[in-house]
Specification:
- The protein has a single domain, classed as NAD(P)-binding Rossmann-like Domain (Rossmann fold), CATH 3.40.50.720.
- It has nine helices and nine strands.
- Helix 1 packs across helix 9 (about 220-235) and helix 4 (about 100-130) runs parallel beside helix 6.
- The chain starts with 6 loop residues before the first strand and ends in a 9-residue tail after the last strand.
- Helix 2 (about 40-50) links the parallel strand 2 (about 30-35) and strand 3.
- The chain has about 250 residues and is of the alpha/beta class.
- The strands form two sheets. Strands 3-2-1-4-7-8-9 form a seven-stranded parallel sheet, with helices on both faces. Strands 5-6 form a two-stranded antiparallel sheet.
- About 45% of the residues are buried.
Amino acid sequence: MDIKGQAAIVTGGASGLGAATARVLAKAGAKVAVFDLNEKAANDIANEIGGIAFACDVTLDKGASAAINAAATVHGPARVLVNCAGIGPAKRIVGKDGPMPLEDFERVIKVNLIGSFNMMRLVAAGMQAAEPLPGGERGVIISTASVAAFEGQIGQSAYASSKGAVAALTLPAAREFAQFGIRVCAIAPGIFSTPMLKGLPQETQDSLGASVPFPKRLGEPAEYAKLALHIVENGYLNGEVIRIDGALRMAPR
């Protein structure tokens, strides 16, 4: 797809991978809508890139639908969706204080999996009704999995479960939407320099970077964003979960 002039939605777009993706898509000529719970930060990114911003909880049916419709009134129906909204708290299944509270597990699944599915189903409905572009394409949906989907570490039971489900969702969604010319992929990042990791001591960040085979550093959000743009532009990428991790394979802990 030639993204120039097309409407795009980026969830979790106020920081980290989402903000980098919003910047890269806008630079490529897309009309970007930044969705995030943090409305002020979303507006800051939108003002920077010449886009629009909406406060959005991706887990809510009516709230997400309202934000999507509001974005469409300004930019037109979205042709691109990049799901970057997510959380990753660490907790053992059974810790020193006993079993993990069930609501902690549910919260991670709700944001990372249900939120991604919610946005996918709502945006895809609009894509299906859109006129096809040259070549028959109507849209591209990209979700964010993780290497934890494949090598979840101790303490990542909830996170790995949610990201594994995002990975597993990719192919059946791509198969279902193929008849409408909508492609679906997912990106599985390794250890990236996001706000969550930047909050760790520098020594810890350096140690994590050194664990990557090559290059021996944390991934940069812009590198994720460039891959997202390539997926949009490469019309033969479909139904695939693409790792971007410097050949990292996570150890148990």
